[in-house]
Amino acid sequence: MASVHNVSEFIFLGLTQHQESEQICFVLFSLFYAVTIVGNLLIIITIKGSQSLISPTYFFLSYLSFVDICYSTVIAPKMIADFLVERKTISFPGCLTQLFFAHFLGGTEMFLLTVMAYDRYIAICKPLYYMTIMTGHVCGWMVLGSWTGGFLHSIIQTLLTTQLPFCGPNEIDHYLCDVHPLLKLACTDTYTVGVIAVANTGMISLTCFVVLVISYIVILVSLRRHTSEGRLKALSTCASHITVVVIFFGPCIFMYLRPSTTFSEDKIISVFYTVFTPMLNPLIYTLRNEEVKNAMRKMWIQKVDLEDQ
């Protein structure tokens, strides 16, 4: 299909159209973004600088934090800046770039969370073989596979959208460029593209979620054979991961595993996986993880000692 683009830019309607609400949102989302960047950077620095956090679990967690920083940066700064202007515009190439990186990083996060569940399964259900199975080489390939999966998912979404003709109107009822709002603006029948988009994003989200649920059911059943102390430690680690999975995958499945229609709730639901999940990940993983908290304390004590010398 030959694409016709009479539209050079898109206009976001934003999260809200009320000026007072926009001022409040500017302050709140600026704070959320700052917490996201600082929290995830702190996790990365702690893991890279600690001798005790060398297991594959923390290797994956450091990459998850890196993806969260990138993912949040693709969306949050533009959204925050738009709270200060009346006319919220984005160029056509800029829109497609945001679409590509949002799905690339979001898809990578889905696969990373699935890989982390597999890591927990091996650690809890096959502890004697854990270091044999989860070697540095294997972990590296798993991370590379997550990035590759995210890229392939995103390139399909982006190429499908690029081929659509946009003749006007150019108002997107959202605060970011995403597939469903763009399909609504295309001046052609988008049924086939919509089905492919649902099959791509929706089925990836659902498949990863089902795999995660099954893996945690197996883990919880196997915990009956552990001591009470080991059971509590494993449950604490798994609870952190399950919390992140529910917050991230729940909204994603709602958004993408359905026909290409838009609802008034979409913008609010999108906030969960574009803003809250990247911000909550470091809080959830540090507040419920004694090893990470202890490593942070040691690094802080060492820093203070160096300054006092």
How would you portray this structure in words?
The chain is mostly helical and 309 residues long. The chain has one domain: Rhodopsin 7-helix transmembrane proteins (Rhopdopsin 7-helix transmembrane proteins, Up-down Bundle), CATH 1.20.1070.10. Helix content is 75%, strand content 3%. It has 10 helices and 3 strands, in the order βααβαααβααααα. The chain has a 3-stranded mixed sheet. The radius of gyration is 21 Å and the shape is globular. The termini are far apart. The model has no long low-confidence stretch (mean pLDDT 85). InterPro entries: GPCR_Rhodpsn, GPCR_Rhodpsn_7TM, Olfact_rcpt, Olfactory_Receptors. Belongs to the G-protein coupled receptor 1 family. This is Olfactory receptor. It comes from Alligator sinensis. It is a multi-pass membrane protein.
Give the rounded overall mean pLDDT. 85
Low-confidence stretches: none
The assigned structural class equals mainly alpha
Count of discrete alpha- or pi-helical segments spanning 4 or more residues: 10
Which strand order spans the largest sheet, edge to edge or round the barrel?
2-1-3
How far apart the termini lie comes to 69 Å
Question: What's the short version?
Answer:
This protein is mostly helical and about 300 residues long.
Topology:
Blueprint (H helix, E strand, L loop, with lengths): L8 E4 L6 H31 L6 H27 L5 E4 H34 L4 H4 L2 H27 L8 E2 L6 H7 L5 H32 L5 H29 L9 H22 L2 H19 L1
Parallel strand pairs: 1-3
Antiparallel strand pairs: 1-2
